[in-house]
Design a protein that fits this description.
By secondary structure, this protein is α+β, with helices and mostly antiparallel strands. It has three helices and 15 strands.
């Protein structure tokens, strides 16, 4: 309830005087003012929601506090209580397509087909490239020529490493070798002591429609692919290519891989 009180005072003769202004205090059921720790639990209050969202202010009346809270609660949308993505408005567009459905690899070692590289690996690769550039600029990579072949190593390291250059022995477009027998429709190319020591594999691709045989040492190759030659040192490398004319061009691409 509200208890309206006039401030009063008395003089030395016991006369009581009241000021014209009056103050209002709200009391709890026991008569204790709410402003002085009274019990609010059973109090009722009439209030309306604020017109705009405004944070409650310390010291404001209880009905003003309730109006501020009601405005915030009434502005909450359905998704605040359901937690459902379907209740969102202005939902973002989620991309679809091949990349969106693939596994993401946050490393540079994954070999599984169908994975996409995490963008964070761009920073990793850039750092490695920058470090390599810095090493080169600061003389941290050493170069040498050994046995007529270029090699390199990190400064201070024991082992020299060969440059990984693939040798294209034939490009498959204008290679030709003649056996000297013009009545047969094939061409042959022979190196009896080819140096395989700098190469571990040979890759063969037939760019034409005709059959062939490639001999590496004692290994006979008749189908496209990459083959191991790491056990060979100095040995035979022979190519036989068939065609529809006398001494046809050899339409093979032959690559020797370090």
């Amino acid at each position: 309830m509200a208890n309206k009180q006039h401030a009063r005072f008395s003089d030395e003769n016991g006369n009581i005087y009241y000021l014209e202004n009056q103050t209002e205090d709200v009391l709890d059921p026991s008569g204790k003012p709410l402003s002085d720790g009274g019990d609010l639990s059973e109090a009722s209050v009439t209030f309306t929601a604020d017109s705009t969202r405004t944070l409650p202010k310390s010291g404001s009346r209880f009905k003003a506090f309730c109006g501020s809270v009601l405005k915030f609660l009434s502005d909450l949308k359905t998704v605040s209580f359901s937690g459902s993505y379907n209740d969102l408005s202005n939902k973002p567009s989620i991309p679809s397509g091949a990349a969106a459905s693939q596994a993401v690899a946050n490393n540079c070692t994954t070999t599984a087909a169908g994975s996409v590289l995490d963008a964070r690996q761009g920073k990793v690769l850039m750092d490695k490239t920058n470090q390599l550039s810095s090493d080169l600029a600061n003389g941290q990579i050493e170069f040498d020529l050994q046995g007529g072949k270029g090699v390199y190593r990190q400064k201070g390291a024991d082992a020299w490493l060969p440059f990984s250059n693939t040798l294209v022995l034939m490009d498959g477009t204008a290679s030709a070798a003649f056996s000297g027998i013009n009545v047969t429709r094939y061409s042959t190319f022979v190196l009896n002591n080819f140096d395989y020591s700098n190469y571990s594999k040979i890759r063969i691709t037939n760019l034409g429609p005709y059959g062939y045989q490639v001999t590496c040492g004692t290994q006979l190759i008749t189908a496209d692919g990459t083959y191991d030659v790491s056990s060979l040192a100095s040995d035979k490398l022979q190519v036989l290519y068939r065609g529809d004319t006398v001494n046809p061009n050899i339409m093979l691409r032959i690559e020797l891989i370090p």
